[in-house]
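Recap from last week: sequence in, structure out.
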Amino acid sequence: MVINSGTDTLSYPVQQPVHQVTGKEMGEKRALPVTLLSGFLGSGKTTLLEHILKSPDHGLRIAVIVNDMSRLNIDATLITHHHVTQTKEKLIQLQNGCICCTLRGDLLAELARLAQKNDVQYVVIESTGISEPMQVAETFTTEFGAVFDQEELGELSEEDKAVLVDVKKNGLHTMARLDTTVTVLDAFNIYANLDTADFLSDRYGDDIVPEDERTISDLLVDQIEFADVLIINKTDMIDPPRLQRIKHLLTLLNPSAKVLESKYSKVDVREIISTGRFNFLKAASGAGWLRSLHEMTMQKTGNGDRMAPKPETLEYGINNFVYSARRPFNPRKLWDLLHDKFILLQHGDGEEGDDGDEENDDEEDDENEGDDDDDEEENEIVIDPDEALQNKRNHPAFSSLLRSKGFFWLATRAFQSGEWSQAGAILTISCGGKWFAEEDKANWPEDEDVRKSIENDFDGRWGDRRQEIVMIGEGIDTDRVTEVFDQCLLNDEEMKQWEDIMEGDGSREDKEDAMMDIWEDGFEGWNEAEEEDEHMH
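Predicted structure tokens:
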């Protein structure tokens, strides 16, 4: 499931906060409450599990599901009182090319058995270091039939199959529900993991499927932004000023999360067990960049009136800023600005296609091979990741930028928005869907508040088309950032050309072709199907 903040509704009831689970409820039939632990290898997840098992504060009989039981330093008495199971997550490649981390059938079968036996009051799941908590959470909140196919069930024992088939009738949410999502962070390495060019495959090698192009910094941000509770672990390894910077950064990235500090993962377990904090819609839309957009007001700037977040003090050197503009980018200028300062990941047209078409395409490619090679050399400038990282560090506008997200408007793509997501040196660009100005109002979301919000984004004859990118970093020079992006916008003469094309006769394709003749666009193409699926703004 993909949630478009502010536009989509959920196909299942939003879970409400729950009361503390007590021993008196052992005999009641209920969905097992679950705490999901996320965090990189070495962050302290396993140490936290040991702490949970040894703690007398929760008073619960807990089932712990881990990826590697050999790493748990627990004795026989703890295993007797609690329930420890080893399992694994499974990485699967979806048809859209995304890599999804889902819970394996053996884990779900174990949850079903625990729920049916009714002798366990709570479950703690340790996810792998490469898991995105939102994707794991979706496993709990979507219909069970959407999670597993017959091939997946075929990998299980007959006993597991019988359990899961029984559960499938009523949906996964009747078996277990997420109560709390927790991310454990290594305080010493958090900035290093944000400021890196490493892909997951660079660090985890064989544990990563070949198609997985996720990066360390992207994954870290995902784990931070989706959590209900953030634990800054290993605080004894950093000085107090650095700790304050980290806390304020986390508050900007995820304003609704509870932030805890710890040494050796020692925290009050009542802050992570049976809290009732988890709410899928809130978690999916609670990131700091999104809140910054919601809180935007008209502000006076050196470049005139602009929509910007409510002014706030630059606390501990961390600040946020929203770049906004109401004219499109010249794609060549934007490319020149970005291509050597970020590692660009572009999600454009898929490479899959009909085999017959591919054969015909191959024949045509052979005939035009020389011309195509010239075009590729001109448009595809390959930058060494380490060089791009160093260029970003040295750039006066981008050196302090840790996280940015939003959408943008290219002159050559007048009918589609671009989605922008940056973490550290990694910048991911993809299609964000049609602008609402291009959509019949009958197809807008039905919710009146959402429709009003969409209408509030309209300004002048070009509707909701705009640049709107939230930026979070350490002492961001907002004037300099604004200047470098403003220099990429169409100038007055170019804007007149663009408007003449838009207001002239001709089909949408004719207009886009005319724009491509004027402005060079080296970005990858966007899949038309993507814009039909959803709006990202």
